[in-house]
Amino acid sequence: MNDALSRLELLRFARRVVVQQTAVSLAQLDQRIADEERREAERRQGEERRPADPEWLIQYGLNKTNVDAVHAGDCWAAKKSGRCKPVTRQEAVDALRRRVAPCVHCQPEAKLDQ
Fold this sequence. Notes:
Layout (H helix, E strand, L loop, with lengths): L6 H43 L6 E5 L6 E6 L3 H6 L2 E4 L1 H9 L3 E2 L5 H5 L2
């Protein structure tokens, strides 16, 4: 008896190996796609739940009691300082009337005059 595999049997074996490897690769790829879809959905959900930026901000000094400046809510300098508290429009106007310095970058006094 001839124990050597025929050429046709070797080709069929090779095909089964390729099919099996492809199935594993597709399963891995499908898992990565599902993970990315989940992350994207979580990111969108986080954006939808994020509260809106405040319209006005008061910046406090390092001792957290002195009021340093009035900012518009979208001011990059206020976000960078990290020492700001959201306030109402009236509170921002009152702070400016008490001679609290307006931010030189966002110029809230011009926006409050509108």
